[in-house]
Design goal:
The chain contains five helices and 13 strands. By secondary structure, it is an alpha+beta fold.
Amino acid sequence: MPNQLLTPDNIASTAAALVGKGLGLAALLHRDLEADFSAGSGDTVKVRVPGAIAVQTKGIYDTTTPLVRGSISEQSIDVKLTTHAYDSVVLSEGDMDLEVADFAKQILLPQADAIVNYVERTVAATLKATPETELSYDPADPARVFTQIRRQLRDNGVPTTATLITAVGSGVMADLIDGPVGSSGTTFDADGKVRGFEVIESTRLAADEIVAFVPEAFALVVRAPAAPDGAPYSASVKSEGFALRHIRSYDPSLAVDTSLLSAFVGVQAMPLAVDNEDGTVTLKPNAGAVRVLTASA
């Protein structure tokens, strides 16, 4: 069987796939903005908020009242790429000749894991920065707090068509698993959700922590830097929904190989755009997310 050639694109694609499959919290966020960050666009893009206009009425037999003319005013939200996340590994000739039997497994996988962990930590920190909402919590009937959270999101302006996601700590997940069933009550819906929320357990949250949100409440951008013209071995690719750049170089003055894996990363909370149905749209900070600490509830 012929050997698999380790071309730049092949290696970078492998690394991107490894990262994409390892995402947990990051996979839940809104990521449609990545295509807007292109060469020459700068480190900030403006997310367009569709304008609204109020409907007007007149009687069906009215022939004298002039039509009211309205106008549409759009707003925008700035999303910024802030960090160049990278992992650089130096490999001696002894490493490459005698120790490395599988480059993807021994070198790329640990590098990809490092970037996954950074993105996950950053996403978790952004979720945990959501202001706390005080709601009552009963560990013997944990699903009830999800009903309260659902109501809070609706009151904030989240539409009934929105996807509802909840990240929970290990303690909350344990309460849900041991929650009432059958005649005692229902914890999980028939589709495995809780009160319409898809529930994801995360050890990056506190054991008693709940962060419920719609995907649009947070924006995640992960973009591969361009492959530099001066690098003899480089590729910038996207795979499994994740973009990465890989550079491989050799330093003859030290007789060492270098493997550099990197990506531009930006994560931020987004305001919820609420159509007031009067021709105006209000941007409500943190309205698309609710955070509860059950220990203090």
